[in-house]
Design a protein that fits this description.
The complex is a heterodimer of chains A (250) and B (282). With 250 residues, chain A is an alpha/beta fold. Chain A has a domain of 147 residues: Rossmann fold (3-Layer(aba) Sandwich). Chain A is built from seven helices and ten strands. The longest helix of chain A has 18 residues. Chain B is mainly alpha-helical and 282 residues long. Chain B is built from eleven helices and no strands. Chain B is globular and about 75 Å long. The chains are: A alpha/beta (250), B mainly alpha (282). At the A-B interface, β6 of A face α7, α8 and α11 of B.
Chain lengths: 250, 282
């Protein structure tokens, strides 16, 4: 039940060329996420999505404004899924799972195995990442992030490097996993269809890093991409984006 | 019917693979036999043990090296292992010194650009100094000693290790470091589980590169300033005008090098970097 509070957040980057203009990655945004919800942050490239995630994770600092991520008043524990799997190639799948855990007890191993099983990778414990396909590697990355049982899970376009078929099956895995664990998730993507299938709420950012829209989606989980209700909603929201005249999908 | 067809196709495919290997061994054997035959013909033509001893004469010497010389009470057959071990221990210790010096230098160069600027030229210069210089230098400084050759071997292999380690440290995947940080791993864990495994193949490449060089320098220092070792035996027999023995020692040295390289180093590498095999295939 993490609580994320973003208030009057702004991030400026120095001009990329000498004498150029300051780059406004994020301009004064406010939002709050409370409870076990799946929230997507959508927008075209260069609208500050990844910057926002970096600030939330503490990798980057804001120019002004503030972000807090708390769990029952204390700093929340975070989990990450990156664009690429980021597994240690010299460690087996199971050893990769154990790398991010603090204890190596039998119980801890069993817990890691449980999450691998949830993404359908029971048979891969002893394999090296190089022996797995890109999609399987990303599944390990997702299992790893869930297995640390974070209060808040940050996901940065985790399916953008995969082919459409693999991405689709991974979305199903993610839906399954999320329905069972109900973490607070902030999911960055440029894919509106993906956001509609996965999220309870979509925060739309526009170039310059301003909030363009904040959409609630009230459909039960887990949702299948083939579900006509999902498809209808996708079409509807995609239509809204066309009216907004921002390049929603790249 | 289909099954039979597949079976015969498989059998012929297997047959080809085995045949290929057999042909390769045959070529290898032909090469060696041809080499020895040409050597023997030349020695018959030269007809001088001092200039070019025949393979048979050299073989006699090899036999004496291993089994002792009945006409010489000082050589009871322990001569091979004594000298051989002396050389091996020197080279191994020299390598330890080289890795011990080169690894920290490499880390400094790879991590910090000021250190890189500071160390680049000295390391490059150290790498381009001929082995002979080191051999003579340590002889002048230490005289006939155990430390001298070890240090020379260490100095000659150090730059290769340092440059490779620097390359490896510079190439550590930033994504993996970020991932580790995001999951709250300590600097110590990151060093042990991300940096060291990333750099290890580069250290190994450095060892492989400098391995034959280290052996050569090791032999050279033994020729000048040692009282034991393969290099020392080569010089001693040279001074006694015992050419068959010189060639016997050189031959044993080459064979040992080949065995060490082919079987020991390659195996260790394969075992240590088992994961890389999949990397390449994947």
């Amino acid at each position: 039940m993490a609580k994320v509070t973003v208030s009057k957040l702004a991030k400026l980057f120095p001009p990329p060329i000498k004498g150029g203009d300051v780059v406004r990655a994020i301009t004064n945004i406010d939002f709050e996420v409370d409870g076990n919800v799946f929230v997507s942050i959508v927008g075209p490239s260069g609208c500050g999505k990844s910057t926002l995630l970096n600030i939330l994770s503490g990798v980057d600092t804001p120019t002004s404004g503030s972000v807090t991520v708390t769990e029952a008043g204390k700093p929340a524990k975070l989990g990450y899924v990156f664009q690429d799997a980021r597994l240690l190639p010299w460690r087996s799948v199971m050893d990769n799972m154990m790398y991010v855990r603090d204890d190596a007890s039998d119980e801890s191993v069993a817990n890691a195995a449980k999450y691998l099983s949830m993404v359908g990778l029971d048979h891969t414990h002893e394999m090296f990442p190089g022996q797995l396909s890109g999609g399987m590697q990303q599944r390990v990355g997702i299992a790893r992030a869930f297995s640390v049982e974070p209060d808040l899970l940050l996901m940065d376009e985790p399916f953008s490097h995969l082919d459409a078929m693999t991405a689709r099956s991974l979305r199903d895995h993610l839906q399954e996993l999320w329905s069972r664990t109900r973490k607070t998730v902030l999911f960055v993507t440029h894919d509106v269809m993906e956001a509609v299938q996965l999220s309870d709420r979509i925060i739309v950012l526009a170039p310059g890093g301003v909030i363009y829209d904040d959409i609630s989606i009230d459909l039960p989980h887990p949702r299948k991409a083939s579900d006509p209700k999902v498809a209808t909603l996708q079409a509807e929201i995609l239509g809204q984006f066309e009216n907004m005249q921002i390049p929603a999908v790249e | 019917m289909a099954g039979v067809l597949v079976d015969s196709a498989e059998a012929s495919a297997l047959g080809t693979a085995a045949g290929l290997r057999r042909r390769r061994y045959l070529a290898l054997a032909t090469g060696w036999v041809g080499f020895v035959a040409i050597w023997w013909l030349l020695s018959v033509w030269v007809n001088s043990d001092a200039r070019l001893p025949s393979p048979g004469r050299v073989w006699d010497e090899v036999w004496i090296i291993f089994n002792g010389d009945p006409t010489n009470s000082r050589n009871d057959g322990g001569i091979f292992w004594n000298n051989f071990l002396a050389s091996v221990i020197r080279v191994l210790l020299g390598f330890v010194v080289g890795v011990a010096m080169g690894t920290p230098l490499g880390f400094l160069m790879g991590r910090n650009r000021y250190w890189r600027s500071f160390l680049k030229s000295p390391v490059m210069i150290a790498g381009s100094i001929p082995g002979l210089t080191y051999a003579v230098m340590v002889l002048v400084v230490f005289g006939i000693s155990f430390v001298g050759p070890v240090l020379a071997i260490g100095l000659i292999s150090m730059p290769y290790i340092a440059i490779n380690v620097a390359e490896g440290v510079g190439g550590v995947d930033k994504g993996l470091l970020n991932m580790s940080r995001s999951f709250g791993r300590s600097e110590k864990q990151m060093f042990r589980d991300v940096v060291v495994p990333s750099v290890l193949p580069f250290i190994f490449a450095g060892v492989r590169l400098s391995f034959s060089l280290a052996w050569k320098v090791g032999q050279l220092t033994e020729v000048f300033g040692a009282s034991q070792g393969i290099g020392f035996q080569i010089r001693r027999n040279f001074q006694l005008f015992n050419m068959p023995a010189v060639i016997a020692w050189i031959g044993l040295f080459i064979i040992f090098m080949l065995v060490l390289e082919r079987f020991v180093l390659v195996r260790i590498e394969r075992k240590l970097f088992r994961w890389r095999q999949w990397e390449r295939e994947g």
